Amino acid sequence: TLRYDLLGYAVRRLNSYPAIATYLDGGHSGWHPAATMAARLKKANVVGARGFALNVSNYRTTGAEVSYGRAISGAIGWKRFVVDTSRNGLGPAPGGAWCNPAGRALGALPLTPVSDGLVDALLWVKRPGESDGECGRGEPAAGTFWPDYAIGLAGLAAWASSPPHPSGRASPRQRRPGRVG
After folding, report:
1. In whole angstroms, what is the distance from residue 105 CA to residue 85 CA?
2. Measuring CA to CA, how many Å separate 55 from each of 1, 51, 145?
3. Which helix (H) or strand (E) segment is 81 a member of?
4. CA 100, CA 137: separation in Å to the nearest integer?
5. Number of H helices and number of E strands within the chain?
């Protein structure tokens, strides 16, 4: 249909630029069976893309998404994929709550390469702290950065007590007072 034609066109157009790696959104493991998602991705020209992205704006665990991604990948010619870990540190919220659920955490820090040969990277695709919308509890509109939610996600992250600095140097919280670098 038109949507798949437009996605296929976008993949072809973006791939005409050598510095762009295109990933189509493949949902998450709690949404559709892998075979259904694989069929949809095929219709959208995932064959022409670098691969697909999973868990964008969701809370599914990295392990669940990697398993789901491997199942999809096997059905579409072993395409590679990325996993959004921006809010999946404690997995899905109780009862399947999805709209700014309390008690969630940042997941793994953005990382590349990953030890799984099909996973290109763990990424923070959704900005941590970006609201899902007004869920009836005084939250800001969808897409609005919400500092309190971001702080809550960060505070519950497994690595929150001493996050590593991307350069490999000690982060400011890991440094001893008076010590440089």
Report:
1. 10
2. 25, 14, 19
3. strand 80-84
4. 9
5. 4, 4
**Tokens (6 digits) for 94:** 């109780």
- Distance of alpha carbon 63 from the chain centroid: 12
Tokens read off for 84: 């959004």
- CA separation for the pair 171, 177 (Å, rounded): 12
Residue-wise pLDDT for 39-65, tens only, equals 999 999 999 999 999 999 999 999 999
Rounded Cα distance between 142 and 180, Å, is 41
Element (H, E) at 153: helix 147-155
- For 66, 83, 122, 170, the CA distances from 63, given in Å and listed in that order, are 5, 10, 11, 28
What's the farthest any 2 CA atoms get from each other in the chain? 63
Is the CB of residue 17 less than 8 Å from the CB of residue 50?
A: no
CB distance 159 to 109 below 8 Å: yes
pTM as predicted: 0.86
Angle between helices 2-14 and 34-43 (to 10 degrees): 70
Q: Interior CA angle at 68 toward 58 and 117, to 5°?
A: 105
- In the three-class reduction of DSSP (H, G, I as helix; E, B as strand; rest coil), residue 58 is classed as coil
Cα dihedral 12, 81, 106, 127 in deg (nearest 10): 0
